[in-house]
Fold this sequence. Notes:
CATH topology: Serine Threonine Protein Phosphatase 5, Tetratricopeptide repeat
Radius of gyration: 15 Å
Low-confidence stretches: none
Number of strands: 0
Number of domains: 1
Order of helices and strands: HHHHHH
Amino acid sequence: MVDLPVGEPLETYIEEPEGSQTALATATTSEEIAAVAAAYPECLTAWACLGEHALRSGRNVDAYAYFRVGYHRGLDRIRRAGWRGSGKVVWGHEGNRGFLRSLKGLGDAAAAIGESQEAARCHEFFRQLAPDAP
């Protein structure tokens, strides 16, 4: 008898909303990126970009909030795609990167505000999900 794979996928893939990446490609300021996030609230890359801009500007609490939105929306999306708590969400797939950037950024922002346990948890989770990340 042949064993059929049952359960979750070994790798999970998600996609960004249609049109969101084109809109982000022309957004350069935080205000323009925020407009993309408002127009495409499920675009994880937009939330990651907002967090990265805030972190670079020293607005660590704002960065934490933006990254947390991207992280939680991303968890919802990878779960809908079949992820159930283990398996990879590979960096090599472009559609996964907004979620992964949000997760890594959440760890960085947590560290910046002194939340060391959350930072460690996020960074370890990132390494487990995306061992192929640069």
